[in-house]
Amino acid sequence: MRVMRYAAGWIAPLFIFLALLGGCGGDGQTHKVRIGEVTRSVFYAPQYVALEKGFFKEEGLNVELQTTAGGDKTMTALLSGAIDVALVGAETSIYVYQQGAEDPVINFAQLTQTDGTFLVSREPMDDFDWSQLQGAVFLGQRKGGMPQMAGEFTLRKHGIDPQSDLELIQNVDFANIAAAYASGTGQFVQLFEPQASIFEREGKGHVIASFGTESGRLPYTVFMTKQSYMKKNDEIVQKFTNAVHQAQKWVQEHTPAETAKVISPYFKDTDLDILESAVKRYLEQGSYAESPAIAEEAWNNLLDVMEGAGELKERVSVAELADNKYAEAAVQASPSP
């Protein structure tokens, strides 16, 4: 009887230990991963879903998120080791490569697959035509950043030279563009959500076109890390990608209202109906990637956009700066219904 009582005393704790072990990604450890996101936007809804629904935790990852406003600042944080993973435009990895980095930055999980900005005007324009931008004052984005390059790509597609056919303003810091437009700078502006929907509600602007629809599929925002980190933390990168794919599926399988509710803690000053409107817009134009893999066709379109903006020194293949093995494994392990 003493043996039975002794066994009963340690069997329950053993089961608790095994349960905890299973909740730590299978190796008994919780791994810390620091993400730096280029901005806070509904455009990145799947990332916030992965955090709020516990998909990272299920993989044994303790993820810390910080906003490192602007692509240049985000990449500086990654290269300096201040963050482990960057959520930023794939073009930044190409810039690092062009500078001859010994430790290149590798893209491993795509989050968004189109541009996320919308063309906003001060007045409603129900019959808008791109030719109406001729001679206008256009408040653009940072030179060399994906929003600006995708914007210029779209303008050229419609026969408008962004340097000579309109007055292009590019000296406003990324974080202050919305405020500058609200204060009266420019007739037109490129805005991400939820700012575009907020301006519509407040009567400060009207969405008249989508740069995402116009510029086509792009590896627009991607999770990336240094090659050295990837080599040392192969399993962590895989677990991270697994969680991202789970979130991508969740967003596709739920309504904009449900997604808005889940991500609302990251937008405490934004009403739920605004968040829902923003998510709906991005879903309708296919901005949220359904797979973390980066397609060669989308990568080549990115190179075309960069080339058109004069920011590409030489074309680099997707195989050079993207590793799809993590995405492919994540999709295979969790196929869509």
From TrEMBL:
It holds the Pfam family NMT1_2. Gene3D superfamilies: Periplasmic binding protein-like II. It comes from the Bacteria. It is found in: Periplasm. Keywords: Signal. Belongs to the bacterial solute-binding protein SsuA/TauA family. PANTHER family: ALIPHATIC SULFONATES-BINDING PROTEIN-RELATED (PTHR30024), TAURINE-BINDING PERIPLASMIC PROTEIN (PTHR30024:SF47). This is ABC transporter substrate-binding protein. It comes from Paenibacillus woosongensis. The lineage of its organism: Bacteria, Bacillati, Bacillota, Bacilli, Bacillales.
